[in-house]
Every structure is written in structure tokens, then in C-alpha cells.
Write a structure and sequence with these properties.
The chain is mainly beta and about 350 residues long. The chain contains three helices and 21 strands. A twelve-stranded antiparallel β-barrel has the order 2-4-5-6-7-8-11-12-13-14-15-16.
């Protein structure tokens, strides 16, 4: 949980309006992204001009909604200089969580002043006059843009752990080219923004751990919204005294256009894992006259039902032994197969 909260520290939501330009830090108010998983990590190592990125095999697991608000009086005092708060509301199954990122925009130069989430407070208040703020740089950012802030610092409180931190934030517009998402029949020219955060964690004057985060975000320059098309966030936290040694990666898809309404219905299907006494199927669209098959990894059918109308949350009462299974949902318009995990 601590790592997931720290992963929110540098959620970057920007867009490029010109050919190879990242124009704004802020997404469209009310923008909704889809959280996804993938059995194979996308290869994002290549940078530079005229790159081709092809990512596939994504499985939806939830959504996040982004809202931009003015700070409250208390927030403005706690995080001086803040003029926009990015509120992220995440939904996975019946679980809802919220995070707040506090930002300062001074004549186009954007800095992060702090973050709050359940069990976590980060305040980039080191130094004086906002010198500890995590500064990305001045927008618009045109390829090949680079900015390094070597004075990121402040205080943190994560559960029962608290102290100070200091380190660097490097922001680059490091690539442009074509993004292919075959699962969604999506192909477009994109510009990529990369951020790398690296900080040391302290208790009193003693270093107790490190945290680093690398974010890649891809934007379609021809899209007039401020919304990413794909984003990955890798966070590594090592703090032996607190018993933390984690390496987590999250993926998000933006508002990707789908082939058809039928395809949209199947692509929106996701399974709440691990399953308990029943399988919970979730979809933001309706699938009518559906057949449902649950099979083990050897192809043996464990459960089958037909002529179902699936919308919202659909419960399948089936008892499974510990292991990995596949569920296939389909009708005359197509089908989708998702993985089931039973602990």
C-alpha cells in the first residue's frame, strides 16, 4: 500500500498540441483512464526520433477519474504556492480510493508542492520560498526538452513512518513516433514525456531508504484534449528499517477509440482478482445473449452458462480450487478471454 501511494507522487498528465510538443501539465477536467495489467511488460527502452511503440495484451482492472480543483484555504496554507489540485478517484471493483496532488503553476513553470492519499502525506516544503518543490519545467516542452531539479526535498508521513526526503527530479521529452495498441485498433503519432524521481528517505539525520520512480506518458499531438493515450509508472521503494522492499509498475490507457460498440463492450470486461466464493465480472457496457465458459489451464470446462445479459457487475457462483483459470465471454458479435486467479 505504501508503494502504491508513493507511486502517485509524480502522476504526470500532459498533452502535445504541436508536432513534437508537450503543451500542458493538466488533463481535461473529468478525464477517465482505464487501469490495465499485462502478462508481458511493454518494451519502452527506445528513445529519440521516429520510434515505433507497439503494446498489447492488456487486461482492464479498474478506472481513474481526474478532476482539477482550486485549493482550499487549509491546503493553500499547508502547501504554499499551490493554485491547482489534481484529484484522482480510482475505482477497482467495490473499492474506491482518492489521492490529491498539489501543484504550482508560475508563468507556465509547473512544480509539485505535495501529495495526500490514504495513509500518506508528502510535503515538498524543504528549504524556503518553495525551493523544495519538485519542478518539472516550463510548458510547453518541445522535443528534445530536458530539465533537472536537484533540490527536491521536504517531509513525508507514511503510516507509522515519518521523516524527511531529498533528491532529484529529471523531466524529458525524450521521444516521438507512432504508438500502436492492437487490442484497441489504435494507431497515432505520439510524443513521449519521461520523468525520473530519485530521493533518499531520512529519519532525523539518518538515511533509512530510497525511493525512485520512472514515468513514461504518450500523447497524441493532434488531440485537442490534455489526456495521455498510454502511461506506465514504475516505483521502487527500499527501506529496510520499515520492512519495505518493493518494485511495482502500473499501466493506464487513456480515452482510446474502439473499433465498434460491440468491441468496446468486450474490451471493458475485467475480473476482480483474486476470486473468493464467486467470480465477479465487471463491464461498463452491456453484453447481451452472452455465453460464459470457465476453463482450467488444460482446457477443461469447469463452468458453463448461456443466454446471459451482462452489465455492470455480474456474479458467477462457482467454487474453484487454488490456481489459474480462464473465463471466456462471447456472443454473435465477438468474445473476450480474461485470467482468473484463485488463492
Amino acid at each position: 500500500m505504501k508503494t502504491k501511494l508513493l507511486a502517485s507522487f509524480l502522476i504526470i498528465t500532459v498533452v502535445g498540441f504541436s508536432q513534437h510538443q508537450v503543451n500542458s501539465f493538466y488533463s481535461t477536467n473529468g478525464f477517465v483512464s482505464t487501469a490495465v495489467t499485462s502478462a508481458t511488460a511493454p518494451n519502452q527502452t527506445a528513445s529519440g526520433a521516429n520510434q515505433i511503440y507497439t503494446f498489447s495484451g492488456f487486461i482492464p482492472v479498474g478506472t481513474s477519474t481526474y478532476t482539477n480543483l482550486a485549493p482550499t484555504a487549509t491546503e493553500a496554507t499547508t502547501y504554499p504556492g499551490t493554485n491547482t489540485v489534481i484529484v484522482t478517484t480510482s475505482q477497482q471493483g467495490t473499492t474506491t480510493s482518492e489521492g490529491r496532488m498539489f501543484t504550482k503553476n508560475t508563468a507556465g513553470t509547473v512544480s509539485i508542492t505535495g501529495l495526500t492519499a490514504t495513509g500518506l502525506t508528502i510535503n515538498c516544503n524543504g528549504g524556503s520560498g518553495g525551493s523544495g518543490n519538485a519542478t518539472l519545467g516550463a510548458f510547453p516542452m518541445v522535443y528534445p526538452f530536458t530539465n533537472t531539479d536537484n533540490s527536491v526535498s521536504g517531509t513525508y508521513n507514511a503510516g507509522t513512518n515519518s521523516g524527511t526526503f531529498s533528491g532529484t527530479l529529471t523531466t524529458t521529452v525524450d521521444a516521438y513516433g507512432v504508438l500502436n495498441l492492437p487490442d484497441y485498433a489504435y494507431t497515432a503519432n505520439v510524443t513521449r514525456l519521461k520523468t525520473v524521481l530519485a530521493v533518499t528517505l531520512y529519519v532525523s539525520i539518518f538515511p533509512v531508504g530510497t525511493a525512485s520512480q520512472t514515468t513514461y506518458a504518450y500523447y497524441d499531438p493532434s488531440d485537442s484534449t490534455n489526456n495521455f493515450k498510454f502511461r506506465s509508472i514504475n516505483t521502487i521503494v527500499v527501506a529496510s528499517a520499515a520492512g519495505i522492499n518493493e518494485n511495482n509498475t502500473t499501466y493506464e490507457l487513456g480515452n482510446i477509440p474502439l473499433l465498434s460498440n460491440a468491441n468496446a463492450a468486450f474490451q471493458s470486461v475485467w475480473i476482480k482478482n483474486p476470486v473468493q466464493s464467486s467470480i465477479e465480472v465487471n463491464t461498463s457496457n452491456s453484453i447481451e445473449n452472452a455465453s460464459v465458459f470457465v476453463t482450467d489451464m488444460l482446457g477443461k470446462t469447469i463452468y458453463q452458462i448461456e443466454n446471459q445479459n451482462i452489465s455492470g457487475t455480474f456474479e458467477i457462483p462457482v467454487s474453484l480450487s487454488k490456481g489459474i483459470y480462464l473465463i471466456t465471454i462471447g456472443n454473435e458479435n465477438g468474445s473476450v478471454t480474461r485470467k482468473i486467479v484463485k488463492d
